[in-house]
Amino acid sequence: MLNVGFLTPSLALGGAEIWIETLAERLQRCRPVGCVLTNAACCDPGLRRRVEAIMPVHVASRERSAADLTAQLSETANVLIAWGLPSLPLLTAGLRSLVIEVAHSDISWPSQAALLKASASKASVRVGVSRAAGQAWTIYNGASLSRVEAGRRRGDVRAELGILPRERLALFVGRLEPVKAPHRLVRAISLLDDWKAVFVGGGALRDDLRDFSADYAPGRCLFQPPTQNVGDFYRAADVFCLNSHFEGFPLVLAEAWLSRIPTVTTPFAFAAEMQDRHGNINTVAADTSAAAIAAAIETAATGVTVERAWRVASEDYTAAAFARRWDNFIVERFCEACNA
Q1: What Rg, from alpha-carbon coordinates, does the chain have?
Q2: How far apart are CA 75 and CA 19, in angstroms?
Q3: Which residues lie across from 11 on neighbouring strands?
């Protein structure tokens, strides 16, 4: 059995970090043997504990550099899987392990393009989580069913949030960062009668978004901290909204499909890619204006895409299906490398 190690800049509650946990937990043909965390400040204690239940987590410090820890991990890992590290060539210089770099974002995003340019290395095999990620190899993501399990009844969650019976609820889950453009949802909600929005997550824009919503949609936007237990929010929502500038393969979108709630996105490349692959499983706003997003929310709320999206996600975009794809890819690529 092949041994696999992971290199990550963070273990916060984000899609790329949860991706590591999801994959490592479900590998069958490969064995996870460790994870190097290069930035100790970017770490959620709960996620770190869950990852440590699967494999050791080695945190870079003044005493042990990320390069030293990576070299140590490579002594037992045949394959290293990395993401988000512009210093990747330095970390892996001279190592015999096969290095797989994962691109989690749309290659059209300047920050992603710059990162990949900085981390360029002839030793790396590059994998994108979608065609939008622009790499030679594509391995689609999948969501964990345990993440979307609801622990409470829909009515109880909505009552706790202060949602009246006549009101409908739009949900955002993720980091409140500029690339996610959460302000777009606030503007859209301001145009819709009897709709509220709940934002589940933290990030640089959290305080600014609160102030913005108080001006544009007073009393209609709610804020919840990031949590591993997002199933209650999926159950409580009427529509899931992701209005980003760029996305690679957002796990939250797969989670919403598996939760059987309608989804709305702006027309980023991944949304078009899913339409090409599967047809109508997601309502794509005509453009990024508040009016277009509001119209898409009302269309999605009819539920016309829900069952088709659930069937597609249940077959192609579960954590189990995603791990099988990676198992097969790692084994096949490692054998090719050995025979080269």
Answers
A1: 20
A2: 24
A3: 43
Number of neighbouring beta carbons within 10 Å of residue 204: 11
Q: What are phi and psi of 239, to 5 degrees?
A: -150, 140
The Cα 120–Cα 89 span in angstroms is 7
Instruction: Give the separation between CA 49 and CA 44, rounded to whole angstroms.
Output: 9
CA dihedral over 46, 247, 315, 200, signed as positive or negative: positive
* 132/270 Cα distance (integer angstroms): 6
Please state the pTM of the whole predicted model. Answer: 0.94
Residues 197/240, Cβ–Cβ less than 8 Å: no
Mind listing the domains of the chain with CATH numbers? 2-142+318-339 (3.40.50.2000), 145-316 (3.40.50.2000)
Tens place of pLDDT per residue across the chain (340 aa): 899 999 999 999 889 999 999 999 999 999 999 999 999 999 999 999 999 999 999 999 999 999 999 999 999 999 999 999 999 999 999 998 999 999 999 999 999 999 999 887 766 799 999 999 999 899 999 999 999 999 999 999 999 999 999 999 999 999 999 999 999 999 999 999 999 999 999 999 999 999 999 999 999 999 999 988 899 999 999 999 999 999 999 999 999 999 999 999 999 999 999 999 999 999 999 999 999 999 999 999 999 999 999 999 999 999 999 999 999 999 988 876 655 5
Residues in contact with 326: Cβ distance below 8 Å, sequence separation at least 6, in sequence order: 23, 27, 30, 139
